[in-house]
Design goal:
The protein contains five helices and 14 strands. The chain has a six-stranded mixed β-barrel. A five-stranded mixed beta sheet has the order 1-11-8-10-13, with no helix packed on it. A three-stranded antiparallel beta sheet has the order 9-14-12, with no helix packed on it. By secondary structure, it is an alpha+beta fold. The longest helix has about 35 residues. About 5% of the residues have low confidence. Among the domains are: about 90 residues, RNA Polymerase Alpha Subunit, Chain A, domain 2; about 100 residues, Ribosomal Protein L25, Chain P.
């Protein structure tokens, strides 16, 4: 016959056993989850790789006005009206147009450093999805002279270039007097307009001396194919500037010492 004390202990033991029976599989799945996503459980954390991600593209808008006259005098007249001569080509027949100078300057500031699509609002309500392919400016005044817009089909892939931007301060530069060499400023990509990245950003914070980032390390956005060589170097953290200077100075001193030794070994001339 059980006593009240033994019944109480048995009840407590049963509850604790039941609790552990539930916690054990939960703990197992937690470990499995952490291992799957690469979360380190030891005291020495794994070295972090540079953060590579894609900044999505925004579509900009610009009003255009059709024009028919061609030639230098016509272009000067358009510029005199504070507008810029332009052309749209790429799908079907090319067509001449002009754009407001101030509106284009604002658009250029919004798109600075990014790959951007420009939706042109034509007269009559028609629209054209384009890329700014070429901008001509005066060599001295920097006035905009002409703009080429390449029209693209929203349902077809096309090829263009995407800039690569470095962010963060490298450990190798900050702590070890290294030099960060940005070797690839842009990459060629193939994609549909809706998938076009604005830019690729590379966080160099964890780059130490001797570390580098290649094209194959870039984050691949959905629907985007990078056409560059996967092994092409984007950025490298090389040896310190002071170390290079010391090595060059040592080579000079060593060369001078060898020349002095050779001079000392030459036989004395006859008197």
């Amino acid at each position: 016959m059980s006593t009240p004390c033994s019944s109480f202990l048995f009840s407590r033991w049963w509850k604790i056993s039941f609790l552990f029976a539930w916690l054990e599989p939960l703990f197992f799945y937690l470990l499995l989850f952490l291992n799957f996503f690469g979360v380190a459980l030891d005291s020495d954390p794994a070295p972090q790789l540079p953060l590579l991600f894609t900044k999505r593209m925004n579509t900009l808008q610009l009003n255009v006005t059709a024009r028919e006259a061609t030639g230098r005098s016509s272009a000067r007249k358009v510029r005199g009206e504070d507008r810029i001569p332009a052309v749209i080509y790429g799908l079907g027949d090319s067509r001449l147009c002009s754009i407001n100078r101030k509106e284009f300057e604002r658009l250029r500031k919004d798109a600075l450093g990014n790959a951007s699509l420009v939706e042109l609002q034509e007269e009559g309500g028609a629209t054209a999805l384009t890329l700014i392919k070429e901008v001509q400016r005066h060599a001295i005044s920097r006035q905009f002279l002409h703009v080429d817009f390449q029209e693209v089909d929203k349902d077809r892939e096309f090829t263009t270039t995407i800039p690569i931007v470095l962010i963060g301060e490298s450990i190798g530069v900050k702590q070890n007097d290294g030099i960060l060499q940005h070797q690839t400023l842009e990459v060629s990509v193939k994609c549909k307009p809706a998938d076009l990245p604005s830019q690729y950003e590379v966080d160099t914070s964890e780059l130490d001396l001797g570390d580098s980032v290649s094209v194959k390390d870039l984050a691949l956005a959905s629907g985007v194919t990078i056409l560059n060589d996967p092994n092409q170097s984007i950025v490298t953290c090389s040896g310190s500037a002071q170390g290079r200077a010391d090595a060059d100075l040592a080579e000079v001193d060593e060369g001078a010492g060898e020349e002095g030794a050779e001079a000392g070994d030459e036989p004395a001339g006859e008197s």
